[in-house]
Fold these 2 entries.
Entry 1:
Amino acid sequence: MDVNMAKLDELDLKILQELVADSSQSIPKLSKKIDVNTSVVYSRIKRLVRRGIIKRFTVEVDESQLGYTVSAYVGVNTDSKKRDSVRTGIMGIPEVRELAEVTGRFDFLVFLRAKGLEELHNVISQKIGMIDGVEHTETFISMRQESKGPEI
Amino acid sequence: MDVNMAKLDELDLKILQELVADSSQSIPKLSKKIDVNTSVVYSRIKRLVRRGIIKRFTVEVDESQLGYTVSAYVGVNTDSKKRDSVRTGIMGIPEVRELAEVTGRFDFLVFLRAKGLEELHNVISQKIGMIDGVEHTETFISMRQESKGPEI
DNA sequence: ATTGAAACAACTTGCAG
DNA sequence: CTGCAAGTTGTTTCAAT
């Protein structure tokens, strides 16, 4: 939120950028690279974590190597009285990765992954389609995907 | 891809799960937690990185605290002869975070973030809309968003 | 907030079994 | 894969600025 928006200086942004690119590099190495005192980098990172600007340290996993070879977006329309329970139901489906409540033609846009087209079809028609309150779905199978990190 | 799909055992998956949740925990601590010899955890992680199953160590940034308070999906239709240049053009827009080439009503689904509704409008109408080959766009402003990690 | 260094703690590698 | 030793490296603390 705007009111909670921390003032970040150039150094904070530089550190964020470096950690997004590679959070496994050690802080002494990082501080040498950006030519800033190690103690400062330590305390800046702690502050970024404390403020929640860094939400977590994690790894990016190649899900296709875990067998999830198909991904799709699904637009979902619901009975507006049942929006909340539909959201909960959708988030309970293991294949679902992201759900956005949106303006426009759909009520939700859902991103999900499946281990093949058959499983994708099954998830959409049997899992999403069967949730009470779901009135209509429209599927966009992703043939190719590119992503970028946050703009820092 | 299926042919390159590595065989991952329970231990590999457990390690991945732990690192997705928190990649800043040290390997000795992680190995104690899951009760596996430290040397084994070291070599498994190296193998996961070598195989590309772990794509990178990174941090998750709260972009709303960087001022990106508005996010949206945009469906894009293009002149099919100009698809490739449109893709390149869209990926060149700083606010764009993800682009998927999809089947169905749209040719692309684009996810982006902006620092306010005015900037969102500007990005869509002035940046995306002005790309040669873009014929139509449809905007879905995200009012609320939930995401989950990979299913491991 | 930053610096620099000391004291402390922890990680990483290599190897024999 | 195990367990450990040796070597290396990271982390905290603090007095001074």
Entry 2:
Amino acid sequence: MDFFRIFAHRNHTLLCHLPMLPDSEHQILSCRDCNIRHCAAAVLGVEELDLINNSRHESVFRKGDIIIHEGSPTSYIIYLKSGLVKEYIKGNQEKEQILQIVRKFSYLGLSSLFGDKVNHYSYAALEDITVCYIDISTFHQLIKKNGSFGFEILVSVSRDNLNNFNRFMKQSQKKTYGRVADAILYFSKIIYESNEFDIPFTRQELADLIGISRESATRVLTKFNEDGIVDLHERHIRIDNLPLLQQISKNG
Amino acid sequence: MDFFRIFAHRNHTLLCHLPMLPDSEHQILSCRDCNIRHCAAAVLGVEELDLINNSRHESVFRKGDIIIHEGSPTSYIIYLKSGLVKEYIKGNQEKEQILQIVRKFSYLGLSSLFGDKVNHYSYAALEDITVCYIDISTFHQLIKKNGSFGFEILVSVSRDNLNNFNRFMKQSQKKTYGRVADAILYFSKIIYESNEFDIPFTRQELADLIGISRESATRVLTKFNEDGIVDLHERHIRIDNLPLLQQISKNG
DNA sequence: TCTTTTTTGTGACGGATATCACATCCTGCC
DNA sequence: GGCAGGATGTGATATCCGTCACAAAAAAGA
């Protein structure tokens, strides 16, 4: 399954952070005490964590809110503490292209950060989320000061890019059925790690993720439902025939 | 021109390195004396350069040679001292997908380097080239030891990724005419920085770069030639109507 | 120089899919 | 509750473009 030759993201393992606190309103007092840090932060000392702490502030977004707008200057790095976010671009009035869904415990905009001083992608909340703003100069400073931290960020950026690029490339040589299969498997394997979930997207957004038209997406989903490959009601989906779905994904 | 919102690559400016020596056979004695270093190397001290020097060796490839094969373990970083290289993948026996053309003064395989221990892309020489092998552990060591070097590498990787991803994305929402126009402009603006050049590709490779069939590529090129947009003979091409070509690129 | 292989151009054809059009359904909102 | 706007499903249609087939040209060997 070439499509899912995904590299484990260390920040998505339990080795890297403790489980979420039950109280999501919980405002931590200091980065020192934060137990949902990014895995790269493991190499930071207490003074360095304090440095981040002094330049950060927390914030909350509601479902549908735009967190970063493409073209805006990058003055902050945003760390996603909880919730799902979509990363996307739209070239002037053209159709929207969704790059990926970002899960909690990731930085937003890292890939744009070192290119120039502008955000190249937009980010919107798919559900209510909490984030941490970190001053960009502090971030730069840390990377230059602590080589190991830079190395970890480099690993993170590289994997992210490789995964996205890989997905995109595979996609581009597939037809609609294969693409829709990919999308379902993407949600199942990468995002929710479950056979049954609610798609956090409209049909249009789903189509934008895999680069097909809304109508085609609908048609293929209906077909998958009729054929018993998935059980689909509105946005709720359950995979009933995983092997077949994987084969469709593979064969295009 | 969204397609060409490319970030200047510092290692491609004269500020960053001196012009090539006239004698391309010239074997330098030490990294210290190398005047075609990657721009990131500017932040390295003499001991650090010596560290690289002790683990490196130079080599030459002939046109058509494969430099790195996808799937091979990454034990070296390869620095391209002169010549052009194509970066590509082919999923088993499927059609080849060319990611980009790499110019001299770039590292090969950087983006794969931090993901895992395998090369994800293949590299083949488009002309006779010279390279420098650098031991990967030395490279890792340097990044961790010298934060500024890591930062520069991070910048380099980020820009490269952003450019490729951007190009790829724009492409995916264009039709054949727009794609061929993109390819011509890519060679003209990015690779050769000239209105007139020899395409270092077969028609098939050109098609693989922009994700269309060979026949379509041929047909579009012929059409461009007939319409006086370009002057084309075999692999030699001269752009005669740049504005129109840009418009075709933009409108898809 | 001759042979073999690779590269290139061109026509005909069919299929996949985007687009248009419209009917339902759902959701928030006054 | 009723209305407006968005989201969804479905059919009909047009078209872009990949595939096949073959000839010609160029390149590579021998």
